[in-house]
Amino acid sequence: MESYVGNSRDMLTFIEKSPSCFHAVDNLKAMLKERGFKELSEEDAFELKKGEGYYISRNDSSLLAFRLPQEEAGAFHITSAHSDSPCFKVKENPEIGVEGQYVKLNVEKYGGMIDSTWLDRPLSVAGRIVVKEKEGLVSKLVNIDRDLLVIPNLAIHMNRDMNKGMEYNAQTDLLPLFGDRDGKGSFRELLAKEAKVDEAAVLGYDLYLYVREKGRLLGSHEEFVFSPRLDDLQCAYACMRALAESKPPAQAVNVCVVFDNEEIGSGTRQGAASTFLADQLKRIYKALPGKRAEYKRMLAKSFMISADNAQAVHPNHPEKADPTNRPYPNGGVVIKFHGSQRYATDAFSAARMRDICSRSGVPCQTYHNRSDMAGGSTLGNISTAQVSVSTVDIGLAQLAMHSACETAGVKDTEYLLNAVRCFYEEA
Ligand code: ZN
């Protein structure tokens, strides 16, 4: 088996075990722990040793991991990605009875998904609950690991115009069916049972719907990966694994940060617009053992690779992509550019990324929006407003971004892994 197949299969297994941002962070922590990284808390003082790795989380949904150099630290080498994906969030008092015959759940949209892709497929619920225990309030991961819900379409006989384009109303068309007449009152009971706690002890929750589809390879010679949440768990996995596996750097502090809430604008306590990254960098700097350069001189020498998946040229709509910048799955790392700097890439950071790709034997491609289309935004320019370091925005090419299931290239996970590993092992 080619190594890229194994690496993409490992990435798909990680995504399957990560139905919510909380699970993604938990699984990334396990990967780091296995490699000898130690957990720190924002509430405690940092005591750091040369060559060692550490990780710290905020809200259990954003995670920052780092490894100290063997010698004097002169710069930060940072990668970033995001842990969240568009989905539906379960509201408080979620059960809604319909004519005494059905129970559905009241949910709201989280981020900008392609609505129709969530219909007529098995769904379930995952996230965290907060429980009152003897020692205080405790957060617990929950995943109802079975086919539980469905958002059924209206029959075509009841809406003959459906194939002319359907606008879904989030309060009426997109609520999942949870049960028949016997389902009433059982949602909280199910949660409590799953978490092995008393129903009355559950004082809060952040719960999301997820699609039950398992990741798989497909295509004429299995050249594509198909999975929920490739945006951005494919990049989060590759960047964090590269950090976990790379050798201790000579003179840089290697950092990988995975932010929550990119899909809703990053403006939360743990998002890319928060102080999460800046706070940790300052604290790491203060706790660095031995001699070190001045903090601001270190920042001036630092570099960030902001990794968030990119839109590939679409096989049915090649005209939607820019005429001269045409990324494809399995074409390698995509460097993203934007004239108004919604991507942070500039000539210098693009050149540095191209150099990293060439040294690691990884092909690279470029992305611009068509000049007559507004594109998305990402982490790079948001986090540089907090920590101003030279940054390149990159991603892996994928189709159907923000669909419940997305398609990307089987070789690209390994390409990103190799490029980031090369960046972390730079002298
Ligand atoms: Zn993304």
Total strand segments: 19
Mean pLDDT: 95
Structural class label: alpha/beta
Radius of gyration equals 22 Å
In N-to-C order, the SSE pattern is HHEEEEEEEEEHEEEHEHHEEEHEHEEH
The parts where pLDDT drops under 50 for at least 5 residues are none
Notes on the protein architecture:
The chain has 427 residues and is of the alpha/beta class. It is 24% helix and 28% strand. It has nine helices and 19 strands. The protein has helices at 3-16, 21-34, 187-195, 230-245, 276-287, 295-300, 347-359, 380-384, 412-424; strands at residues 38-40, 53-58, 62-67, 75-82, 87-98, 102-110, 123-133, 136-143, 177-180, 202-211, 216-218, 224-227, 252-259, 303-307, 310-311, 333-336, 364-367, 390-399, 406-409. Strands 1, 2, 3, 4, 11, 12, 13, 14, 15, 16, 17, 18 and 19 form a 13-stranded mixed β-sheet that branches. Strands 5-6-9 form a three-stranded antiparallel β-sheet, with no helix packed on it. A three-stranded antiparallel β-sheet has the order 8-7-10. Helix 2 packs parallel to helix 4 (230-245). Residues 82, 231-232, 262, 308-309 line the site of zinc ion (ZN). Zinc ion (ZN) is lined by residues 82, 231-232, 262, 308-309.
